Amino acid sequence: MTTEEIVTATQALPKGVSLWDDAWLRLKKNKLAMFGLCFLILMSLLCLLAPWLTPYGYEDQDLRLGASGPSMAHWLGTDTFGRDLLTRILYGGRVSLMVGFIATSVALIIGVTYGAVAGYAGGKTDALMMRLVDIIYALPFMIFIILLMVVFGRNILLLFLAIGAVEWLVMARIVRGQVQNLRQQEFVEAAISIGLSPWSIIRKHLIPNALGPIIVYTTLTIPNVMLLEAFLSFLGLGIQPPQSSWGLLISYGVESMEEYPWLLIFPGLALTLTLFALNFLGDGLRDALDPKASRD
C-alpha cells in the first residue's frame, strides 16, 4: 500500500469524539437542561444590560406615584417609594447572581484544593484533615455569618467571602472521594515513577480527571448560595438599600403582599425560575458527564 493510499484510508476513518464533546451531545438532548442554560444566559444578559434596557435607575423615586400596578410606563409596577420594579429586579439580579457565582468560586477553590490534598495524602493526614471538616461542619454557620455581618459591618465583599467559606465543606468531601479512587490508577503511578511532585500530580492529573463531579456539584451549589443570600437579605443582614437583591425585594414584598401583591410575585418568580434553571442544568450535567450513574 502506497503512502497516498494510507493517507486516504486514514482520512476515511470516522473521527473520534472526546469526552467533553460526547457530554455536550448528551446535554443538548436534555430539553430541561438546555432550557435552564438558555434561561440563565438570558437572565444574565438582561441583568448586565439593565442600564440600557430601562429608562430608570434602581434608586430613582417618585413619591407622588407611590405603589402602582403594572402599566405601560412601568411594566412590573412600582414599589411604595415609586421606584420601577423591573429596574430593581434587574439590578437585584446582578447582586444575586454575583453572590451565587463569586461565593461558589470561593467555595470551589477552597474545597477542591483541600479535598484533593486530603485524598492524595491518605493515612493520618487524610484522617486529621477530614476530622477537621467534620468539626467545622458541626458549627452553626448561620449564626457565624450573622456574627460576621454584625461585627465587621454589612459589606458586600464580606458577604461573598463568608458564604463561600461556608459552602466548601461538601465540595471537599466530594473531591476527596474522587481523588482517592483516581490515585490508584496507572497514570498516577506513571507520574510518580517519572518523579513528578505530589502537587504537580494533584494539579495536572487528579483534579482535571475529577472535573465532571466538580462541575456538577458547582451548578448545584450556586442555588444554595443564592438562597442563603436571599435568606440573609430577608432578615435584613444582607444587601442594604438603596441596593437591592432578589431576597431583599422579596422581604419588602412580604411586608405589603396583601395590598401590593406584585411586589412579592415578580421578584419571587425571578428567583424561583433562576433556581429551577440552575437545578435543571445541574441534573443535565450530571447525566451528561456520568451517564452510567444516571442509568443506575
**Strand segment tally:** 0
Radius of gyration: 24 Å
Q: If you average the pLDDT, what whole number results?
A: 81
- N-to-C CA distance: 47 Å
Predict the CATH topology of the domain at 99-291: MetI-like fold
Low-confidence stretches: none
Q: What is the strand content?
A: under 5%
- H/E order of the elements? HHHHHHHHHHHHHH
Name the overall outline.
elongated
The main β sheet shows up as: none
The helix tally amounts to 14
Helix content: over 70%
Q: Which structural class do the helices and strands define? A: mainly alpha
In CATH, the architecture of the domain at 99-291 is Orthogonal Bundle
CATH superfamily of the domain at 99-291: MetI-like
Instruction: Report the top-level CATH class of the domain at 99-291.
Output: Mainly Alpha
Keywords:
mainly alpha; MetI-like fold; 296 residues; single chain; 0% strand
Could you characterize the architecture of this molecule?
The chain has 296 residues and is mainly alpha-helical. The protein has a domain at 99-291: Orthogonal Bundle (MetI-like fold). It is 75% helix and 0% strand. The chain has helices at 3-12, 19-29, 31-48, 50-53, 85-121, 123-137, 141-152, 156-182, 186-193, 198-209, 211-234, 246-255, 262-289, 291-295. α11 packs parallel to α12 (246-255). The longest helix is centred in the middle third of the chain and has 37 residues, at 85-121. It is elongated. 37% of the residues are buried. The model has no long low-confidence stretch (mean pLDDT 81).
